[in-house]
């Protein structure tokens, strides 16, 4: 089996990258992590990738102030050098140019810490708490020119609980990111994703059954179902 070569782009901690690396350690996983690339030399995830024997590279965005095309060209040179055919953004905190996104359309995915289209952008957990939503979660989507707008591949929902801090909610969501991101990357790498009319289909997807209500719809007089 030939495995699809993937470049994972990070800016920091890299826990999603670590989840992808762990999945790709199984030889039957359809993707192989060919490169972990950071735009920051101090990204903690770089050391983890290196410790797992994965190639790493740093292309410092700071060195390309005002020259986004130059920054992206330098990244693409590294990505090409490692033969990567898919890009997985994993906490990569730079907005990419439309030209770059168009070149990689259908071959670049991202994980975002909210149930899109709710809460695109930053500070998603604080905004979810402020909005009083009962369910929050995460999304893996194909990257298109609109930030956090591309076709959705997978989502996971978690309950928001009374007294939740931003950190507690973030941790609950992050655990789900680590579950759905490796699965979504596998579907893309195996050629199981088709986009039509701005929406993604996944062949033979194991669709969920059941539902999650929060709080549980239980009260005196309501029979247990
Ligand atoms: C993750 O929660 C990811 O969803 C988020 O940054 C965190 C990175 O953590 N990404 C974004 O907000 C992108 N808009 P990690 O470095 O441990 O994977």
Count structural domains. 2
Structural class from helices and strands?
alpha/beta
What is the count of helical runs?
A: 6
Q: Remind me, CATH topology of the largest domain?
A: Rossmann fold
Count of DSSP strands: 9
**Helix share of residues?**
25-40%
Helix-strand topology string: EHEHEHEHEHEEHEE
Bound molecules: glycinamide ribonucleotide
Q: Mean pLDDT, rounded to whole units?
A: 97
Shape: globular
CATH class of the largest domain: Alpha Beta
Spatial strand arrangement across the major sheet: 3-2-1-4-5-6-7
Catalytic activity: N(1)-(5-phospho-beta-D-ribosyl)glycinamide + (6R)-10-formyltetrahydrofolate = N(2)-formyl-N(1)-(5-phospho-beta-D-ribosyl)glycinamide + (6S)-5,6,7,8-tetrahydrofolate + H(+)
Site (Raises pKa of active site His): 148
Family: Belongs to the GART family.
GO cellular component, one term: cytosol
Provide a brief overview of the structure.
With 225 residues, this protein is of the alpha/beta class. The chain has helices at residues 15-24, 45-51, 68-81, 98-103, 124-131, 166-189; strands spanning 4-10, 31-38, 56-58, 86-89, 108-112, 135-142, 152-159, 193-196, 199-202.
Give a description of the structure.
- α1 packs parallel to α6.
- Helices cover 31% and strands 23% of the residues.
- The protein has helices spanning 15-24, 45-51, 68-81, 98-103, 124-131, 166-189; strands at 4-10, 31-38, 56-58, 86-89, 108-112, 135-142, 152-159, 193-196, 199-202.
- The protein folds into two domains: 1-104, 3-Layer(aba) Sandwich (Rossmann fold), CATH 3.40.50; 110-213, Formyl transferase, N-terminal domain (Rossmann fold, 3-Layer(aba) Sandwich), CATH 3.40.50.170.
- The radius of gyration is 18 Å and the shape is globular.
- The chain has 225 residues and is an alpha/beta fold.
- It has six helices and nine strands; from the N terminus they run βαβαβαβαβαββαββ.
- α1 links the parallel β1 (4-10) and β2.
- The strands form two sheets. Strands 3-2-1-4-5-6-7 form a seven-stranded mixed β-sheet, sandwiched between helices. Strands 8-9 form a two-stranded antiparallel ribbon.
- The mean pLDDT is 97.
- The protein binds glycinamide ribonucleotide.
């Amino acid at each position: 089996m030939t495995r699809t070569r993937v470049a994972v782009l990070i800016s920091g901690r890299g826990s999603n990258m670590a989840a992808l690396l762990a999945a790709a350690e199984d030889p039957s996983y359809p993707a192989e992590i060919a490169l972990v690339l950071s735009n920051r030399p101090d990204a903690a995830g770089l050391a983890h990738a290196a410790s797992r024997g994965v190639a790493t590279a740093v292309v410092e965005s700071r060195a390309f102030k005002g020259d986004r095309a130059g920054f992206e060209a330098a990244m693409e040179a590294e990505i090409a050098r490692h033969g990567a055919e898919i890009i997985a953004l994993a906490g990569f905190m730079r907005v990419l140019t439309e030209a770059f996104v168009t070149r990689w359309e259908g071959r670049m995915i991202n994980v975002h810490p909210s149930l899109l289209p709710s809460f695109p952008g930053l500070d998603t957990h604080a905004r979810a708490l402020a909005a009083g939503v009962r369910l929050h979660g995460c999304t893996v989507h194909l990257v298109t020119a609109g930030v956090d707008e591309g076709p959705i591949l997978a989502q996971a929902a978690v309950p928001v609980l009374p007294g939740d801090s931003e950190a507690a909610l973030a941790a609950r969501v992050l655990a789900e990111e680590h579950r759905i991101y490796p699965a979504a990357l596998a579907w893309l790498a195996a050629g199981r994703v088709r986009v039509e009319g701005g929406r993604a289909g996944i062949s033979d997807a194991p669709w969920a059954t059941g539902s999650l209500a929060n709080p549980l719809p239980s009260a005196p007089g309501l029979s247990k179902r």
